[in-house]
Amino acid sequence: MRTAHRFVVSTICFGICAAFWALAQVPNPSRPLSEWLPGGALFYLESSDFASQLRDWNRSDIKAKWLVSKNHEEFMTTRLMLKLKDVYEEFSAAAGFQPDLRELETVAGTQSAIAVYDIRQLDFVYISRLPAAQLGANVFTRVRSSYETRAAAGQSYFARQSGGRTAAFAIAGEYVVASTREDLLSTALELIQGGTARLPVSQEPWSQDALRALPADATGPAYLRLVMDLASVIKTPYFRSYWIQRNTNDLQTYYAFLTQVNRKTDAFEETRVLLRSDEAQAPNHAAATTDLQRFVPDGVGLFRLWDTPSANFALRLIRQKFFDGPVDATRRNDAPALSFDGFAGAAGDFQTRIDEPPKPSLAGELILEPLKGLLESAGLEAVLHLESTPATDDSVFVRSDAAIALRGASAWDADAVRAALTSAVASYQSVANIGLQWRNVAAAGVTVSQWNGLLPLTVYVDGQTLWIARSPRLIGNALEHASSVARPSQTGGYLARYNHGTELSPYLRMMRMLDLSNQSNYSSFFSENVGSLALSLNSIESVSVTVNDSGLVQRQFLRYELAR
């Protein structure tokens, strides 16, 4: 098990089936294949041309780079991958062959779909439309003699079992149907024959609601489409264990999820839909977010724009970007995950006590209550975050620059803002406020306030907009850009763009410096693991995100610009 395709195929298992001519006639081939997938699935995936997509992936530079990356090397040793390896071997024994990507190509057709019914068992049904020549020349024609012939819905199918696992397939007209359970395969054959006794996945409420919620310009066949019964998936222990975002509580308000990808000449475009059971408060300051878009400079590494953020959210963002004071204990809603990877400690480390709380810091505290009061009284309408890594003269160190613009319902009090920021850090960053005196600095034709010490902080107030930044440079760039562009027309509760092409090199340089270590068995996670994954995706120039929320339906649009 040395290649990534083992992982990919193990999730689909032996879903790719083989081909023999059958007697049954198939209904109108233009129908969505979800009408033939049995109900009860956790999610299903549809492809308009699976054969081309699989062929492109097998021959892509991204795959070639990833297979030799540190990210892939360490992923292959994770507990999840080892579990999938065991399942893969079980299914290989049941099917009578190892379904790697080479074998998968022989049974991958154009219009295709797969539905998964049990994550632990990886039970699925797979349907694909194959050309006539491919029906008679594929992996299953080689192993057909080891399968038993059975029948369901007047249709012959073939099944094989080993060690509690099942592999079964049938040919219905020009479609191949495969499954890891004979009852699911039989139901699929009944649906293909026009039977109405069983409910197809297309008639599940979560599936119908998700498809109806698609924007008008995103309906119809998709390059790739995933539809999920999110409420059921979240309840599985496997989702809670392996979902990397760790935001299960946030997702529990949604019951259905859909994402689909379409391929353009210069980009991939993804549309997502999340459906809520209960209506949430929708963003309602479109004018503020539209206006703040004018301040996003061309080529900035990252920008994020939120509509109607809370004061606590804005305070956390300010603290994260500008203050490195003592961090308050963070309340967790879930127990820490048990890690089976890496080392839990060093044999020579006898000085660290695990049964006593750490001793309190001798430094002062970061006091943000005055600033929080200003944020709460301002009536925040929108927050804009800008960040980039400008080049340095020495080309050795990496400097990160950040700026935040806060749009309030009323004008900000500049003196009160400066006083709140000074009092926040005075007790641990200074003695007698040395280095925390404000001085005036010119930036883009305006006067901004900057601390005169080592702590980089710049403030600028323009009516209802408060700017906080590490240096005047990014504020100046934002103001200059706003004066030279027309008012943008794009609206959304959340807007973002990350420039992968410009930020990858500074990221790698910074992480390689931070990850330097002479410790044995030291893993340079950010520079080697994450860095190698980022390098594998260097064909992506930038990623942009637009989120619109109506309260019951959240729609997300993502565009992955390809490097030219």
Q: What this model shows, in words?
A:
It is a single chain. The protein is α+β, with helices and mostly antiparallel strands and 564 residues long. The protein has a domain at 4-203. It has helices spanning 4-12, 50-58, 61-67, 70-75, 79-95, 101-106, 132-135, 139-143, 182-192, 205-212, 230-235, 237-242, 248-251, 286-292, 311-322, 369-378, 414-429, 472-484, 500-514, 525-536, and strands at residues 43-47, 112-118, 123-129, 148-152, 155-162, 165-172, 175-179, 224-228, 254-263, 267-276, 302-307, 380-388, 401-408, 438-443, 446-451, 458-462, 465-469, 494-498, 540-549, 553-562. The protein has a 20-stranded antiparallel sheet, sandwiched between helices. Strand 19 and strand 20 (553-562) form a beta hairpin. Helix 1 crosses helix 5 (79-95). The longest helix has 17 residues, at 79-95. The chain is elongated, with a radius of gyration of 28 Å. It starts with a helix and ends with a strand.
Radius of gyration: 28 Å
**Assembly type:** single chain
How big a fraction of the residues is strand? 15-25%
Helix content: 25-40%
Terminal residue distance: 35 Å
Beta-strand segment tally:
20
Tertiary shape: elongated
Number of helices: 20
Secondary structure blueprint with pairings:
Layout (H helix, E strand, L loop, with lengths): L3 H9 L30 E5 L2 H9 L2 H7 L2 H6 L3 H17 L5 H6 L5 E7 L4 E7 L2 H4 L3 H5 L4 E5 L2 E8 L2 E8 L2 E5 L2 H11 L12 H8 L11 E5 L1 H6 L1 H6 L5 H4 L2 E10 L3 E10 L9 H7 L9 E6 L3 H12 L46 H10 L1 E9 L12 E8 L5 H16 L8 E6 L2 E6 L6 E5 L2 E5 L2 H13 L9 E5 L1 H15 L10 H12 L3 E10 L3 E10 L2
Antiparallel strand pairs: 1-2, 1-8, 2-3, 3-7, 4-5, 5-6, 6-7, 8-9, 9-10, 10-20, 11-12, 11-18, 12-13, 13-17, 14-15, 15-16, 16-17, 18-19, 19-20
Helix pairs in contact: 1-5, 3-20, 15-16, 16-17, 19-20
